[in-house]
Amino acid sequence: MISFRKIWRETKWAVIIILWVTSLVLGYWGFSRFSTDNNLSLPVFERAYRTLQLISMNSGAVDGQINWMLNIARFLTPLLAAYTVLQAISNIFREQTQWLKLWRMRNHVIVCGLGRKGTFLIDDLLKNGLPLVAIEKNLEPAAADEYRRKGVIIIEGDATDPDTLDSARLIRASHLVCLLGNDQQNLSIALQAHQRLKGTHRKPLTCIVHLVSDDLQKMVKKSELESDSDIPFNLEIFNTYQREAHALVDHRTDHHPLPTRLLVVGLGRLGSKIITQTVYQTYVQRPSEQLSITVIDREAEAKVNKMLAEFPHMADICDITPIQLEISSNQSLKSIVARQSEFDRVYICLGSPILSIQTSLALMEIPELANSPFFIRLERQTGLFNLLRGPLSGTLNEDLIIPFDMFEQTCTADLIFGGLHELLAIMLRDNYINSLDPVMRSPQEKTSWDALPESEKESNRQQASRICQVLHSTGYTIRPLSDWDAGKLTFDKQEILSMAKLEHELWCQWKREGGWQYGTPRNDQQKIHPDLVPWEKLKNTERDKNTSTIIGLPALLAGLGFQIEKYQSSR
């Protein structure tokens, strides 16, 4: 039934047009035959006119012998006319309903692009009940109708056009996700949104931009946490390869929870990031452990040398063996891998699904890999994905085959609920809780982030947004992580005191702008907070909370992929 509905949605108007042509032709031929059978003399224009009158049922009731063609036409034509009118009214009504719904919408998510990334994201967001608006330039009618049925507002247009963003009610949205296939277009959307929000007073819009280019990521990432305080706009960079690498490296199996011997086949963007992420996590969490990684790619040596030049610490804990090979040669691949040591994990990071399957099946025949988990990159829409989900008879490790669709695992609701600024706010709260004594810490730990009142969440978000301002006050800035020891940075006592004091002053300013005061409440509506006092009069326990937060900033930001650098002498 679902298949029939989909086919009907895709072919509906073509079928209707064919039926219209058939009905009118039958009507004309029917009246011609009727004229002959009943000894009438109906000119060509009269027959054509009567055929058109069938639409309004004004010419179908005739006396005399009626042929089968006219019989079909005088019933089919009015039915087609009624159906077409109803469809037109339905479309007009749907557009008006969508406009009214959009006009009333607030705190919605705007998704630009309905390709594979966009559809995976929308499907996951629908499960969370979020209000959604999708912008797509080249709409597929069947898919658009299906999403409209599920409650998504679909706008056909160019997301890089500021008028299109306005029609999606950007001014009231909570998130803008840019998932077009071109990095420049995604950045253009972000720029248009940033310009549009100048001079507005609202909660910050979180703009999530998908970028593939590593160079662009490094350039734009510098401003990811350094937003203009006068513009309610938070920029977050999103890369499917980086997110997938995190997910794969963090994946744990019963037999191999902490891999130390890896085989990576295909050293493109995904393969490179898997290696970098694995080595970085080992360097930070298990610095005494030595990694062994074998890389197979037709340009393996050049790509490995580039990684080692970019990340000097990699050579300290990692022995990388590059093997230059045309991967399509299965026999050569099997013989070379069989000569290597056993592996804890095998990552197949090839762009071609057929080549991925061929390579995987060839390697699975090697006895030394019998207990190795295979992570195989595939697209779910290919039948090969479901094939690997079931047991493969004849393979040595049928229970350890893990196919993954990169977009399915990365374009999820976590983009919205687990974005950089939100993660930073959560980590600040966790650091605060860890700084408490055990008696005070226990009740705080029992309350998860999701269960917190919105006011408390917002307090942590505001603190996260002040980090750049606090660091800048003593001559520090935030940059993308390149030094793996950046989390070990320490501030001197004067810097810690200065930044902690400024953080308290900025917090007091934010609370007063929200109507909070210090003192004794005069009525139930008055909002009073005991810590709205100058730094010198603040309780020591509260001062210690601020200073511990400042001390923990280097490690906290390093965990999110940033480092703190000195760019000028503090005064």
How is this structure best described in words?
This protein has 571 residues and is of the alpha/beta class. It folds into four domains: 2-92; 105-238, Rossmann fold (3-Layer(aba) Sandwich), CATH 3.40.50.720; 244-410, Rossmann fold (3-Layer(aba) Sandwich); 419-566, no CATH class. Helix content is 51%, strand content 13%. The strands form four sheets. The chain has a six-stranded parallel β-sheet, with helices on both faces. It has a six-stranded parallel β-sheet with strand order 9-8-7-10-11-12, sandwiched between helices. Helix 14 links the parallel strand 10 (345-348) and strand 11 (374-377).
Task: Please outline the helices and strands.
Blueprint: H1 2-37, H2 44-53, H3 68-104, E1 109-112, H4 116-127, E2 132-136, H5 141-149, E3 153-156, H6 162-167, E4 175-178, H7 183-196, E5 205-210, H8 214-221, E6 233-238, H9 240-250, E7 261-265, H10 269-285, E8 291-297, H11 300-310, H12 314-317, E9 318-324, H13 330-338, E10 345-348, H14 353-363, E11 374-377, H15 383-389, E12 401-404, H16 406-410, H17 414-417, H18 420-435, H19 438-445, H20 454-465, H21 467-472, E13 476-480, H22 493-513, E14 516-517, E15 527-528, H23 540-551, H24 553-558, E16 562-566
Parallel strand pairs: 1-2, 1-4, 2-3, 4-5, 5-6, 7-8, 7-10, 8-9, 10-11, 11-12, 14-15
Antiparallel strand pairs: 13-16
Helix pairs in contact: 1-2, 1-3, 9-10, 13-14, 18-19, 18-20, 22-23
